[in-house]
Write a structure and sequence with these properties.
The chain contains 19 helices and 16 strands. By secondary structure, it is an alpha+beta fold.
């Protein structure tokens, strides 16, 4: 007996109905990106490992899917390392490539490779899948789509403000209530300096980025495990507990970071962005969150995260400013900033809250019933006219029983069924049934186009 097929944990199949919903999300995001002047690119699913490694921090590197070299991948492997089971050192000998972890690092690589062909500032969007060897759980997958928008080659904080506008517009269109969390890595560096642990910036950000998931006690425990002194941990507590309006938080933070030039620069950037955003009358609230750190090492300035207000799930959009990501690949001093929409979490939220417009639940608006060859040929001509008018139309392929054809329309949620027999052909009419109300009427082709 054949084994029942399956797919890897953390991946999903999507039915036609689900793909209609997902495409609604993709098309909405894509349309907003285009309205702000962003142009599409694509990069390969596979990147060289040396492109990916070292860009996401120690935890990110562990989640990279590595691809074994073609052929006898053990041929050049060190026998001693094999006996020792030293997987870390063996990796470079048996694997040269990996699946991309995100779209930002491949984008930086793309910019460097094509720097003579593109115009700076370069605004691009990219909607493709990424892969992470994470532990699958609710809202966390091993394969998922990201919808990224980045602008590179400009230091202006107007770019940060524009990305906040894009976030606001996308979620307004999708009808998802959200809050935008904002922080700055320079401010975080100032905090690390102020508590006397400037060399442990990465340790601090990795730990406090988990605050909303694991709580302050476990964050403090992790900080201690990472080598922070108890004195430094104690100094950090009142900073993480700062409350009040955005203006209050910024005022308190500027006083705390008074001796840190870098930290004050971060506060200045936050204040500038917040001031500009306050003039735009956005639908989405923007909140300063000093615990927001974003675990990716390449962020250097503003960092964003978006949470849904009506669903228990992780962040659904994230991003930030990176001052020299292209420098890793040889193009120094080129700053960029970007955001990434997590399409799979957005998909889950929209299903949970039933937020899809009714019209997008089906791709077919009208089904012609097939009564036989003569009628089918007549229907094919009418179907062509309907499609030319923008009406998604099907003709049932077989002259099956009416009950079976109606069941097909019902299962596919096709809202209208057209029936054409001898009388209809003679009188140039169409018998039209509204599948939702059950009403049936005779209409002309012009009337049919208007109804559908």
């Amino acid at each position: 007996m054949a084994q029942k097929p399956s797919i890897p944990k953390g991946t999903r199949d999507f039915s036609p109905a689900e793909m209609v919903q997902r495409n609604y999300i993709f098309n909405t995001v894509k349309d907003v990106f285009a309205q702000y002047g962003y142009m599409p690119i694509e990069t390969p699913a596979i990147e060289n490992l040396d492109t990916l490694l070292g860009k996401y921090g120690e935890e990110g590197d562990k989640l990279l899917f590595k691809i074994l070299n073609s052929g006898d991948y053990l041929a050049k492997a060190d026998a001693e390392l094999l006996l020792q089971g030293d997987s870390n050192r063996l990796t470079s000998q048996i694997s040269e490539k990996g699946l991309r972890y995100d779209l930002t690092v491949p984008f930086a690589r793309f910019v460097v490779q094509h720097q003579n062909e593109i115009t700076f500032p370069f605004k691009r969007y990219q909607i493709q899948p990424v892969w992470r060897a994470d532990r699958p759980q609710k809202g966390r997958y091993r394969e998922f789509f990201q919808c990224d928008a980045d602008v590179i080659g400009s230091n202006s904080l107007l770019n940060e403000v524009e990305l906040i506008q894009i976030i606001d517009e996308v979620y307004r269109r999708l009808n998802i209530r959200t809050v935008i969390k904002l922080n700055n890595r320079k401010a975080l560096a100032g905090i690390a300096d102020t508590i006397g642990e400037s060399q442990r910036m990465i340790d601090i950000t990795v730990a406090i980025d988990k605050l909303d998931k694991i709580g302050i006690e476990k964050v403090n425990l992790e900080l201690a495990e990472r080598g922070l002194s108890q004195a430094a941990i104690d100094k950090l507590q009142p900073i993480l507990a700062i409350e009040g309006s955005n203006e209050d938080k910024l005022r308190q933070l500027s006083q705390i970071l008074i001796a840190s030039e870098t930290g004050l620069k971060g506060v200045e950037e936050l204040s500038t962005v917040m001031a500009m955003v306050s003039e735009l009358n956005l639908t989405t609230p923007v909140e300063l969150d000093l615990t927001l750190a974003r675990g990716l090492n390449y962020y250097t300035g503003a960092i964003f995260e978006v949470k849904a207000l009506d669903a228990e799930i992780g962040s659904i959009t994230g991003g930030g400013r990176y001052d020299d990501l292209t420098g890793i690949f040889g193009l120094k001093g080129v700053s960029g900033v970007g955001i990434s929409f997590g399409a799979d979490r957005i998909f889950d939220i929209m299903n949970q809250l039933n937020l899809y417009p009714k019209k997008i639940t089906t791709t077919t608006r009208l089904l012609f019933v097939n009564f036989g060859e003569k009628e089918a040929i007549h229907c094919m001509k009418l179907a062509s006219a309907l499609r030319s008018a923008g009406v998604e139309t099907e003709l049932y392929p077989d002259a099956d029983k009416m009950k079976k054809q109606m069941a097909y329309a019902d299962k596919k949620r096709i809202p209208f069924v057209a029936m054409i027999g001898e009388n209809e052909i003679t009188n140039s009419l169409i018998s039209l049934k509204n599948m939702e109300t059950g009403e049936q009427s005779s209409v002309t082709i012009e009337e049919l186009i208007r109804v559908c």
